Amino acid sequence: MAKSLLLVFGGPTAPEHEEEVHRWYERHLEQMCELPGITAAHLYRPSAKQFPRTTADLPQMLAVYEYDTIDLATDIEALAAARRDGSLTALPEGAYAFDPNYQSAYYNLVSSSPPVEGWTLDGPAIFMVFGGPTKPALEEEILRWYVDGHLEQIVSLPGFTAGHLLRPSTAQLPEAAPDKFPGVLAFYDFDETDLATSIDAAWKAHLEGMKRGTYEPGVSIPGPVQGVWALDPQHQSAFYELVTRRTRA
Known about the structure:
Elements: E1 2-12, H1 18-32, E2 38-46, E3 61-69, H2 72-85, E4 96-98, E5 105-113, E6 125-133, H3 139-154, E7 160-168, E8 184-190, H4 195-212, E9 229-231, E10 238-247
Antiparallel strand pairs: 1-3, 1-4, 1-5, 2-3, 2-10, 5-7, 6-8, 6-9, 6-10, 7-8
């Protein structure tokens, strides 16, 4: 079995549609968990607290669907078929829109720290960082940087329980635009009720790491070698808080 995530960004087209969209999601998450390969479905909203560098407008809603599967392409086709034949309740017409600045996509798990068998999202918040190498020749160097230390270093910070490195899957829904995908997705689990305090601590550790260039657990988290990695210019890295979740029966 292999772990993958489907991320879908969007939200109500106007404030008066928010309750209607939430009601639709309550049923939609249950229906998604009945499809092949999907083990859990979650709805998040952006946290009111973010890193200072998070300046762009964030999607109003983020749906995350967990897959544990041996054939993601076949399971994606099952989802596409369910959308075509009406097995999934249609989006409320005119009430919801996909975010035009964020590409909904499938990501495959590369590595986790600590190693997690049967990883599932069960905390109150997540943090996602979209980025990638500045040129293709540096891709392996960036993957090693994440796997050989950075994920473990981030988990030393208050509130972080696990870090995961994912890459865009080669299997995607037909409407996906692979040329717009970030190179990698760093996905972090939180188990913390005081999210604002954890975010402040993480930002301070980032700044200290930029200054020192060395790692100290919970205090200083260095970045990659300058010039080899960059944040994705379109997908804003951000913290999201759980609204509701459903799991496979």
